[in-house]
Amino acid sequence: MRMTAFLVTGALLALSAGPTVAAEQCRDAKGKFIKCPPKGAASGQRCKDAKGKFAKCGTPGAKPV
Fold it and tell me: pTM of the prediction?
C-alpha cells in the first residue's frame, strides 16, 4: 500500500512540476529567447498595384506604400 501511495505521489509531483513557460518560445539568430511577434502581423508592409488599389505584396507590379 505504501509503495502505491509513493508512486502516485511521485507521479503527481512530476506532473505539477512541468514547464511553467509558455508553449511557444521564439529565438533570435543567436539562439537567445526573445518575445514572439504577434500572430497575423506578417511583415507590417502594405502594397499597392499600379492602379493604386491595395494588393498582396509580391504580385507583379505591386509596390510597398
Answer: 0.33
